[in-house]
Amino acid sequence: MLGSGLGYCLQTLADQGPVVVVDREQTVLAQTGLKERFADNPNVLWLDQDAENVLKALQHRRFEAGELPLAVLRLPLYQRLDPAYYRVLADRLERPTDGCPWAAYPRFCSSNPRVLLLRTAYFLYREIEAALTRLGVPYVCVDVGKTDRLRDGFVEDLLRGVADFRPDFLLTVNHFGLDREGRIAGLLHEAGLPLASWFVDNPHLILHEYPGQNRPGVAVFSFDAGSLEALRQKGFGHVEYLPLATDPEIFRPGVAGRDPWRARVSFVGESLTDRVEALAAALDGDMALQLRRAGYGYVFSLQRDALAYLREQYPTLAEQVLALTTAEKRLAAESLLTFEAARQYRLERILRLREFAPLIAGDRYWPGLLGDGGWRFLPYLDYYSDLPGFYACSEINFNCTSAQMKGAVNQRVFDVPAAGGFLLTDQADQLNQLFEPGREVVTYGAAEEISEVVRRWLDDPVGRQKVVERAGKRILAEHTYIHRLGTLLHSMRSVFA
């Protein structure tokens, strides 16, 4: 409502739903007493700021109300009282931008696009910011928060960031900053703001059954080429393969290690026990047990979707999962199957290293899982301060890809050779697209092959060094985060400019 009048219309509307009243006629309000009368009505919001701040506040109110459609009601008297305010405000609200003039500015006008980064506490953001800086790309960050719920004040900061910085597009990782109800995606769509979301974990487990994430203007990039078709089927208009990479300023040869890190064979990673137990605790005990028993077969299934695998191999269990009452519980069930599969797969392969007295760096569960037999253990190593020096201290860095990746490659494939270390990794469908097999990367197949392959490469230090050198050259030429961000920036300009 542009103006409040004597309050008859306001009373009728407020009884039916949320109303925003724009009225700064203090003399009239003093006579009607309407602000005091409706002060405690949760359906009524009073605004009297300048036009730009009214538009921002209105957009936030609509977001909180679940993107209800906007109807603009002009009270004629107010259009005559202050036409430079009420009439202009009404005209702007009724434009096709539908109340988003704070985002109505030309896009992609400069040689380097302007990027608003939705940032949270996740390892990849440091690399993204460093790459944007080296590429000369102007960017600002809006803090999302540390949990899966948006922090208080996020929406206001997002609107302010857009209005003040005028980005060409927004960038996030794993859909951080987008709520499960799809309201943020809707807000960006309404404002005509493109969004790039780079998935570096299983997209299905992130998007799952949550609606409204596939709005026009949302471009998704996935580290897993095998997930692209499923993302298209979810309705995303622009889908592109963008694998992980490394930052050669962090992972580079010659970073000093420590004597306790020296080993013939080492492995760095979680046992995944904590994650599995937390997911199991969210479900009925019998269902959790059945899902864990079904887990190992999922590793070798051609099915990428955990629920599709259950339908194929365990139809009764699949029906029980589908019957769960909330999307969160169904997600917990699919995640439990996925991470239990990864846990069992990882444990079986690391046990094959026993004869080499390997060094295992990770969580507190490893000693109990691996038992006696010459193992050495380290607690968690810091990704940035420890791993660049750790990798070169081992003759062989052993790698197991998680079951959630299903053909994609993980971070170690790039980080280990970049730091001057030799990597032995499991075979992955997409590995040969990134490195020349046998010359730039060395793999093992079945678990039974691991001991033999490890012995062969332990006995060939010259061969190991050649592989490391070739892999390092390939990484510097093609697989840094500058390469990845350059690809993403080019794609966003070509699609949305």
Question: Which features does this protein show?
Answer:
13% strand; 6-stranded parallel sheet; 44% helix; 497 residues; alpha/beta
Percent helix among the residues?
40-55%
**Strand count, sense and closure of the main sheet?**
6 strands, parallel
- Strand percentage lies at 5-15%
The averaged pLDDT comes out at 91
SS class? alpha/beta
Strand order in the sheet with the most strands: 4-3-5-6-7-8
Silhouette: elongated
Number of helical stretches of at least 4 residues: 23
Radius of gyration: 28 Å
Which regions contain 5 or more consecutive residues with pLDDT less than 50?
none
- Annotation, overall tally of beta strands: 14
N-to-C CA distance: 36 Å
Write the layout of secondary structure elements.
Layout: H1 8-14, E1 19-22, H2 26-32, H3 34-37, E2 44-47, H4 51-64, H5 76-81, H6 83-93, E3 115-120, H7 124-134, E4 139-145, H8 154-165, E5 169-173, H9 183-191, E6 195-199, H10 203-207, E7 218-222, H11 228-233, E8 238-241, E9 263-268, H12 273-281, H13 285-300, H14 306-313, H15 315-322, H16 327-351, E10 359-361, H17 366-370, E11 376-378, H18 387-390, E12 394-399, H19 412-418, E13 423-426, H20 431-434, E14 442-444, H21 450-458, H22 461-478, H23 481-496
Parallel strand pairs: 1-2, 3-4, 3-5, 5-6, 6-7, 7-8, 9-10, 9-12, 10-11, 12-13, 13-14
